[in-house]
Fold Lipoprotein.
Amino acid sequence: MMSAARVALASLVVAALAACASAPAAQPDLTPPPRRPVDAKTQLEYGNPPPPPPGRY
C-alpha cells in the first residue's frame, strides 16, 4: 500500500513539472500592416497623398 501511495505522489509531481515546463502560448501580433506605397497612376490622378495623421497622444 505504501508503494502505491509513493507511485501516486511521484506521478502527481511529474505531472506538475510537465505542466510548468510547457511553453506559454505565443501572443498575437497586433501591429497594423505598413501602408502600401502610392503608385504612379494614383499620384497623377489625385496628387501626392496627404501626410499621415499625427499620433493619437
